[in-house]
Amino acid sequence: MTLTIEQQDLLKVYNKQTEAWKLVKKDQSYNKQISTIQETLSRFGLLKNEVKVYLYLARAGEMKAGDIAEAISLHRTETYRILKELEKRGIVFAIFEKPLKFTAVPLDKAIDLLVDAQKIEINLLENEKVGLLELWSSMPQPKAASMKKQLFQMLEGEQQVLMKANELLERTEKEFQVFASKEYLSQLYYSDFSDKLKNQASKVKVSVVTDNSLKSAYFLGQLQWLNKTHKIADDKSLPCFMISDNKEVLIIFHEDAVNDDDVKKKQKTAAIWTNYSTFTKVLVTLFSKLIEE
User: Does the CA dihedral 193-199-201-203 come out positive or negative?
Assistant: First the structure.
């Protein structure tokens, strides 16, 4: 009986010593590693197929567009378009020979180029900020409604959530309250949020409640300035939440990301911000109960 292996389970590898290609079977660790790299590169603005083309080319060496298209099951015209786009970004080169071939810069160099490109875009936006604000202020503005609106906002991604937490903290004038179990306390500790919280504690009243786990005890030990302003609660099932001046709240939670094979990947961070008064009162009451426990 002849055993067959699906084409997508095979990886074409080039051996420099023998100067020959061979097919090897992918294992689960390979799929996890490549998935992590693909997810990271997508944060630099690369589309899914652009990441696939780059990674295949980076591993395979010099390749013709048609061979790349066949290897990753992509239309040849789309592959040419992607290669030209990656060439514009500086992470792919065309080799002037017949037939035309392409080669990719190493991954570390590609990441440097993509990071530098984003830095340039950020600097351009910062330089244009003053001009844009002057142009905006010179335009006729509609009369703003005097009534305060009750709003909410959905956020996704660790960076976006931390930026919102920092924004909420900076806006606080009197009191800032935080409930964070061990997972969230760890996330806040390893970001710059804990430093900003410490600085803000000299200006406003800061209260922190966490669970009674060993992990939380460790982080509290590192945050010694919290000794007089933290409490321990038994509840570990609540999401992390922050309350600013009893007026605004930010609720942070983790979601299990699932890939196409229904296999759980790492957790995604998401959050809800709102100044809805009824909702805020509920969390203020809950925080008070946690402190009393």
Answer: negative
Name residue 160's amino acid.
Q
175 in the same domain as 79: no
Could you give the CA distance from residue 111 to residue 81 in angstroms, rounded to a whole number? 21
The one-letter code for the residue type at 147 is M
CA–CA separation, 115 and 109 (whole Å): 10
Q: Using an 8 Å Cβ cutoff, are 282 and 249 in contact?
A: no
161 & 265 share domain: yes
Q: Which residues, listed in sequence order, are joined to residue 107 by a DSSP beta bridge? A: none
Determine the structural domain holding residue 61 and report its residue range: 7-109
* C-alpha span between 176 and 153 (Å, rounded): 19
Indicate the residue type of 13. V
In a 13 Å sphere around the CA of 164, the CA atoms on its Cβ side amount to 24
Distance CA(283)–CA(289), nearest Å, equals 10
Task: For the beta carbon of residue 216, count every other beta carbon within 10 angstroms.
Answer: 22
Instruction: Determine contact, residues 55/37, Cβ cutoff 8 Å.
Output: yes
CA-to-CA separations, 194 to 27, 162, 199, 212, 227, in angstroms, rounded: 40, 11, 9, 19, 14
Strands 101-104 and 175-179: unpaired
User: Strands, DSSP E only, in 89-239?
Assistant: 92-95, 101-104, 152-156, 175-179, 205-211, 230-233
> Is 124 contained in some domain?
no
Note the pLDDT tens digit of each residue in 173-222.
999 999 988 888 888 888 888 888 888 888 999 888 888 888 888 887 77
Express each pLDDT in 60-92 by its tens digit.
888 899 999 998 889 999 999 999 999 988 999
Q: Cβ(115)–Cβ(44) under 8 Å?
A: yes
182 assigned to some structural domain: yes
Q: Within the chain, which residues score under 70 in pLDDT?
A: 1-32, 143-148, 226-229, 234-236, 256-266, 293
